[in-house]
Description:
Helices cover about 35% and strands about 20% of the residues.
Amino acid sequence: MKLTTKSIDIENRGVLLHAGDAREISVRDGDRVEVKNHITGESVSAFVDTTASMIPQGVIGIYRPTQVRIDVLEGAEVEVRAADRPATLDFIKKKMDNQRLDKEETLAIIRDVVDDVLSPSELTAYIVATYTNPLDMDEVEHLTRAMVETGEQLHFPSYPIVDKHSIGGVPGNKISLLIVPIIAAAGLKIPKTSSRAITGAAGTADLMEVLAPVAFSALEVQQMTEKVGAVIVWGGATNIAPADDR
């Protein structure tokens, strides 16, 4: 089905269809559709909301995050069809049944997390499954490598590159602000990424932002590290581990 886009300034990972159009392609609220941009060839999977009055038939409302992902302008024509059920749901159920996931299954799950294919409830099911049926060492490796593979990667020409991580908020003294300069002064390169506050008043990135900007791209992080030996930046701006930001 070809529909004309209408931008909707709502932070939601989905699209809005007229109830008549939804019936025509056999989808209901909460189902998935594939939306294809004819100009770029880009297509995304999006969750469906329906309405009988907010938009007319022949028009598809594109929520802001979906519009960014598909890179489409208002008034453009897109192709919309019912999307297949993600195969990763079977992998999640497999883990719920206390079966081991292999490398390819884990990578498929993480790719769907990054691409916003999974709903919050489906992602919750995966997290709960890994809690009730803990990952073995091979599965931990698969998960770690999948998170690296689905993000931007930094490749430094010099060696070694070191890192420091600890459990945040215990007791919340932000020791990274002390450790990172010490390590850099010793001649080691340390591109330190940190989080913003999760449970406390300020995370390491928030505290560092009082002194200097912390939002940089992965390329900028690499360039600054090569130049001065160390950075303390907000990991959420780098796209190094987008699965972690979900």
